[in-house]
Each structure stands twice: as C-alpha cells, then as structure tokens.
Amino acid sequence: MGKEDLLLRVEGLTKYYTSGYVFTKQVLGAKDVSFFLRKGEILSLVGESGSGKTTVANMILGLIKPTRGNIYLDGKNALEMDRKEYWLKVQAIFQDPYSTFNGYYVVDKVLWESFDLLKKIKGITHSRNEKREIIASTLEKIGVNSDEILGRYPHQMSGGQMQRLLVARALIMNPDLLLADEPTSMVDASTRVEILNELTQLKEAGMSVLFITHDVAQAYYISDRAAVMKDGEIVEIGPAEKVFFDSEHPYTKNLISSIPKLHEKWEI
Amino acid sequence: MARKTLEIKDLKGCYRGTFGVIQAVDRASFSLYEGDRLALAGESGCGKTTLIELLTGTPKPLLHYEGGKVFVGGYDVWHIDPEKLRKEVKCRLLSYVPQASLNALNPTKRIKEFLADMLKERTGEKHTPNDARKMIGKHFERLNMDKNLLDRYPFELSGGQRQRVSIAISTFAEPSVLLVDEPTSSLDVTSQKRVIELLVDIHKREIIDSLMCVSHDLGALRQMCNRLVIMYTGRLVEIGNMDDIVENPLHPYTKLLLNSLVPLERQMKQKTLKSIPGRPPDLRDLPIACRFHPRCPDCMDICKKKRPPMVKRDSREIACWKYVEEG
Questions:
Q1: pTM for the whole thing?
Q2: From the candidates B19, B48, B189, B193, which should be mutated to test the interface with A, based on the most A CB atoms within 10 A?
Q3: Contacts with B43 from chain A: Cβ below 8 Å
Q4: How high is the ipTM of this complex?
C-alpha cells in the first residue's frame, strides 16, 4: 500500500467521558481505536449500541476532543488543523434527518448555504445561475427528481428524501471523507437501498466513506473493509468478506450467528 | 381444522384530528387459529400498530373505531361493556404488549411491588409484594428467567430484560392470544435473539394458544412466526404461510418489498439491490382503487378503477387484480 493513497489514519484514539466536579466519574467511550482509510474506499464500523461507534465518529469530526490519540488526514494532524478548512474535507450525514433541517425554511436552503461555506473558505464564487445548475445536476446524478424536492418544507418530505438531499449536499461540498452515521436507520425499508447505492456511487467518484451502522448486512453490502467494535474497542478489522464470513474473534462469530436472516431458519 | 382464537371481520379504524381524517385500517379480515404464530409486517406508517390497537378494544385518543367485528373467545370486543372487557377479556383471553413496553413498568416501584398492584387490579385480591414475587416467580422459573429481576427497579434492567419481563408479566394469566408490537426493534441482535426465543418458547409450552407479532423486521419475524400478513397503507395485501411467501411472494408489493431488503449473504456483494419506485403515499390523500397502483410495475387499467378483492389461492390470500380470474 502506497502512502499516497492513504486518506485517514487514526492512532490509539481514546475517549473517557468525565462527569461531576469534585467526585468525578469516568465512562469509557472508546479505547485505543486505530485504523486507516484509503482513498475511494468504504470502511464500515459495526457494533451494538454503546460500543463506541458514534464516539469515534464525533472525534473524527472534531465535535468532541479525544482524551488520547491522534487523527491524521492526508498526513496532517487533524486536531491542529483549522476547523473550517478541516470541515471542507470531512463532511457527515447523521442518523436523524428530521433534526438536520430547519423547519421554517425550504429545504433548498441547505444546498444554497453550502456554496456560502465554499466561498468563505476556498474563495470560490458562483453566480446564481451556476449554483442552480450545479444543484440540478447533482440531484440528477443521484437520481432524485428535483421538482419533487426543491421548494418544499421538511415536513412535506419523507425521511428518505431528506437523507438523499444530504447526500446531494455532500456531493456539492465534495469532501474527501464522508462520515455516514447510521444514515439508514430512520428510513423506510423500501427506500433504504437507494441511500446505500448512492454511497457506493460516491465511492466510485473517489470519495472515502466511513459508514457507521449496527446492521451487519448493510455493512457487508456496501463496504470494502469492516471493523467490529465492542465496549469501545475494535475487536476485528479486515476485508468485509473475511470479517463477516470467516470471523476469527468469538464476539464477531456470536454477533453474526444471532442476526435473524430471511432465508435461513433457526432451530428454536 | 384448528380452533379460532381470534376472528376479525371488516375491521375499520381511522384517526381524526385537525390534520383531517386518516384511514389507517381499511376493512381488514383474518383469523388467528390455535397453534398460529402470526406476523404482521409492513413499512412504517402502514397501520400495523393501529390494527393491533383496534384488536384490544381500547384505542388511544384520536383513533376511532369505525366498524367491523373482533371476536375473542366468544366475546365481541367492540360490543361489550368496558368493565366486562377489562375483567374478563384482557389478560385472561387477550394480552397486549405495546411498542412502548420498555417504558411500561412503573419507574418508582420495584417490579414485585408493581406486580402486587397489578394483581389487586386484575383479581381483586390483595397481595404483599413478596406474595406477588412468589406467585410470579414460579412463572418466571417456568420461562427460565431470573427471579431476582423482580427485586429490581426498571431502570436497573437492560432494554432486553425489560422487554422480557413485560412479556412474562402479560402471559402470567395464560391468555389465549398474545399480541406483541415491535418486540425486537431498538434492541441489539443478541438481546433480540433472546426475546424471539422467549416468545417461541411461551407458545411451544402452550402457555398461550396463539401469538400475533407486529414488526417491520422480516428477518426476525421469519424466525418467530409461521404465518405472515403483509400490509400496505391500511390494507392487507397478502396473507399466507411464512415460508411460502418468503420463497415465492405473489403480490407485486410483497415481491418488491422482499427484494429491497438487504440480506446477509455471501453473494450479496455482486448484486445491486433495487428499491421500490416512488414513495409511500400521503395517508390523507391516498390513491383510489388499488393503493399500490402508482408504484406497481404490473399496473393494469382496472387497478386504477376498482379496489381489488381478496383472492384465495391454495393456502394464500392476495389482494391483487392479477390473480382475479376472468368471469
């Protein structure tokens, strides 16, 4: 593996949540998490609730400060980079699309505002028509009918549509790394697959995706490599095929065998 | 022919409020037989929970009963005295574990104290918490559950434990029918498995005669149930044996729904899964005739004009014009 195709490197990332003033109490969020992410690759982080998946995501996004450990983006120490510049390169889609949008504005605002951020930091300016064209072509690229989405308010849209709009926003910002934290868990089963397919498209366009989920099947469907987390630690990491079907760690084996499968019946 | 434990005929229900009228359940008919474990599946907002709530005879505010019959052990749930319903039907014939069962336990009391209250309400006899613990402890032992859970407060239990305690409590009086709403959602896969095993176990030991389980997770339902009902925007579209439907779905919606699920299989990686075109309709403004026709790949002229009837095919019932024979 050449050094140049490495995008993100995380080393010994540890987080203890501390509460209280005099008698402090510590709760482990993540412990010694180390992994790397290549350019144009999807890595999924799989684990049960409370295993520290979101803690790791929030640390990479810079929303919380790690207790120990380092994050390198393109070889540069991410913790020391300018936040706004960093967020141009790292973007995220979260679990709950309903809380991402402001209910008082039409949803287009989210797309238009992304141009402001590009202008402020990168100094790229677009005319109104250019912006409109970029929005239309981006929506077309991910197969969304723009008449159905633009000019609407969040309460008029389904969770799936909003989530796809956020994928479109990510495309306009064109970051190097997209963090997708449970993007499909609040979406209808019939539209869930579309979001997964769009993430695969982003990957083909050269973007790296860190896909965080509790659903092993979805993780396997879209990712190249996978990491399994338990109690804040990564217990197994490797190619998705190997991690899920020839698992080495007893925890992963147990996890895979307890997943109810549609075409396989348990003996109970 | 096995005995019918629950019979539903043309059940209708709607939500009425400032937002308008939402026809949440539209003429649903099916029966539950002794030995059945029936699954009710569908996407969010298709009326699964509404249907099961209508079966209990005590709907939440805004939900209105509009017609139809629900028979449980000879009682017509909607046409008897509410006090009779509470004393003679609920718990003894029909038990319901709601979706919010994780929060159904009293947070300020130990579980055994809560049970003493419950026993007083149900049987009219007073019991001390320790008596209640002894009585229900036997039931817990029978289900291979830890009796010591009864000494704890609900917040000391994990989500899976709380769900299993709720299920154990609602089966204490050995009801004929147990209705469970989303027992496994919001649980991790390992706790999911234990809840599924518990439900199957309760049924196999004949503590209950039949089980009806609502969920959107078809993988979990497959493990738990032997019959399946698929619902779309308030209407039942396909009813049949679980294995038959999963292996060979007939209704176009069922086909597309099963295809859009992401299964964990080795060959999955090479395939590109497809979602159902379009989106679920606005429930205040539903398509007329067949409600699936705007999204259906096999849509015919008649689908836009008339509601499809339930057609019988062997052990299966399908609501689709494709299977209606000419004449």
A1: 0.87
A2: B189
A3: 188-190
A4: 0.82
